[in-house]
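4.2 Preliminary Data

To establish feasibility before requesting continued support, the project team ran the inverse folding procedure on a target of 341 residues. The structure was first converted into the token representation described in Section 3, and no sequence information of any kind was made available to the design step. The complete token record follows.
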């Protein structure tokens, strides 16, 4: 199934049922009075986060969802049956935004979480509700209120512990293939991933984390250039970013330091909170250079970036250095978990 992380849907809650106009009819009771019941309430529309759904593709096929209307009231003071609520299943990690107002209605980040997105209309009053000392035979009734209508924009943000960040062809897909069972497409020519990939990295018994590979960023992404801006939201739920830098670019005129700084600027333009996340440097493709030259080039990049945080020199193609990287990430995540407790 094609990965779809944005979709627009229309929801319509059920209308309230019409109230009833009725009068009591019994032998020897000539003036029984009004006994019309109220209409039933319309059904509401709920979104429910469900594990196991990994895309919003279904909402490209079916776009409109409508709950049941409430039934009308009847005599003998009988209230009409309420319309059934409609539960629409969405992937965990879905953000719901009102398309008309731009208001964020909710963020379904936990499996089983529910969000009411359209409230059903209230049922109309029957004529027994209008009786009084001066109006003993009312013929008024309520027609029931309409249910809410909304056009919603669904945005899916994948839930991962670690996000891979970098330019196209920095080696993100190769790295995730090397450390997990994910199999994104890779090739020996420049191209970019077209949709996010998730991989579970196994670090031993009961020790694992989820890594996300998103399409590569280019300069100007925050203004809409390239594909990366569409998928930057997938990094917002991660706990640490691995910034991959190609130390052996195909074009000798390409400056890895300049490109790395450009990526950081795009992060800041997009979301300051995302830019403030822990970000480790992963200097990739050491297998393409002699060992001493790779070490020297990595040291030069770190010096020019004035970077003193965690950094790793690896080869996604051969797997060299990836075990140490994954072990460090796992330890970092476990420390965060202990602090949260």
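Position-by-position output of the design step:
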């Amino acid at each position: 199934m094609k990965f779809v992380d944005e979709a627009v849907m229309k929801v319509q809650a059920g209308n309230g049922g019409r109230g009833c106009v009725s009068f009591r009819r019994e032998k020897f009771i000539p003036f029984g009075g009004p006994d019309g019941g109220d209409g039933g309430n319309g059904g509401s529309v709920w979104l429910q986060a469900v594990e196991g759904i990994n895309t919003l593709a279904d909402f490209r096929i079916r776009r409109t969802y409508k709950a049941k209307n409430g039934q009308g009231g009847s005599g003998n003071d009988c209230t009409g049956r309420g319309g059934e609520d409609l539960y629409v299943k969405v992937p965990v990690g879905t953000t719901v935004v009102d398309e008309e107002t731009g208001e964020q209605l909710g963020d379904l980040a936990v499996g089983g979480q529910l969000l009411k997105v359209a409230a059903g209309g209230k049922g109309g009053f029957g004529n027994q509700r209008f009786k009084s000392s001066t109006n003993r035979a009312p013929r008024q009734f309520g027609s029931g209120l309409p249910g809410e209508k909304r056009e919603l924009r669904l945005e899916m943000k994948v839930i991962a512990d670690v996000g891979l960040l970098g330019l196209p062809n920095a080696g993100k897909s190769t790295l995730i293939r090397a450390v997990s069972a994910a199999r994104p497409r890779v090739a020996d020519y420049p191209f970019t991933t077209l949709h996010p990939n998730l991989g579970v990295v196994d670090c031993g018994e009961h020790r694992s984390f989820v890594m996300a590979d998103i399409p590569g960023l280019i300069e100007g992404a925050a203004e809409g250039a390239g594909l990366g801006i569409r998928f930057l939201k997938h990094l917002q739920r991660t706990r640490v970013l691995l910034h991959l830098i190609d130390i052996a670019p195909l074009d000798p005129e390409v400056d890895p330091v300049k490109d790395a700084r450009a990526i950081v600027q795009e992060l800041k333009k997009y979301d300051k909170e995302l830019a403030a996340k822990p970000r480790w440097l992963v200097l990739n493709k050491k297998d393409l250079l002699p060992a001493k030259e790779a070490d020297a080039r990595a040291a030069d990049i770190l010096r020019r970036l004035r970077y003193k945080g965690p950094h790793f020199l690896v080869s996604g193609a051969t797997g060299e250095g990836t075990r140490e990287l994954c072990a460090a990430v796992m330890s970092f995540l476990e420390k965060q978990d202990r602090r949260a407790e």
